[in-house]
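About this split. The held-out portion is used to measure sequence recovery: a designer receives only the structure tokens and must propose an amino acid at every position. Recovery is the fraction of positions where the proposal matches the reference. Here is one held-out target exactly as it appears in the evaluation file.
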């Protein structure tokens, strides 16, 4: 696994730890599932989002109940969610119904990476300094990779993107 993917997984793990330690979650099953997810390989498929974006994913409610949307089903039992997480090998979302600045920052970062991968970043973007710094670091790494792999199109795309970010 490359360094960028590992760093992103560590950031996701950090957000889950933050939720576990920052909030007083009385629901033992929620704590169990969040702890399991934070240390499981399924975390590589998890995407923090601002809204439900796919047919599969976890919603953490204001009262810290977990709902796992799986195709047309809504799963609420911890053992069933556990089994699904154990088998999942495709992207799924993680959405919280409550507002928190750190979680929101992670959502924005995930969105930016997704847009960048799809080459669909908007022309005008206003970023918080920390988010801008993170994105610049990712872009610089991708520029280095494009040079090593002799990927001219990627190099042009990422250097243009970096220049645009540095102008703002």
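Reference sequence for scoring:
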């Amino acid at each position: 696994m490359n360094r960028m993917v590992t760093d992103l997984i560590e950031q996701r793990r950090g957000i889950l730890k933050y939720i576990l330690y920052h909030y007083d979650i009385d629901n033992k099953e929620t704590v169990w599932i969040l702890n399991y997810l934070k240390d499981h390989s399924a975390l590589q498929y998890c995407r923090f989002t601002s809204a439900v974006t796919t047919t599969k994913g976890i919603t953490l409610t204001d009262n810290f109940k977990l709902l796992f949307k799986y195709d047309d089903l809504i799963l609420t039992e911890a053992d069933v969610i556990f089994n699904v997480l154990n088998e999942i090998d495709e992207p799924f979302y993680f959405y919280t119904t409550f507002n928190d600045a750190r979680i929101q920052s992670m959502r924005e970062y995930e969105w930016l990476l997704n847009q960048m991968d799809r080459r669909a970043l908007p022309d005008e973007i206003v970023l918080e300094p920390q988010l801008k710094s993170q994105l610049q670091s990712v872009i610089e790494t991708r520029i280095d990779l494009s040079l090593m792999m002799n990927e001219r199109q990627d190099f042009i795309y990422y250097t243009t993107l970096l220049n645009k970010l540095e102008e703002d």
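Annotator remark: Residues 121-167 form one domain.
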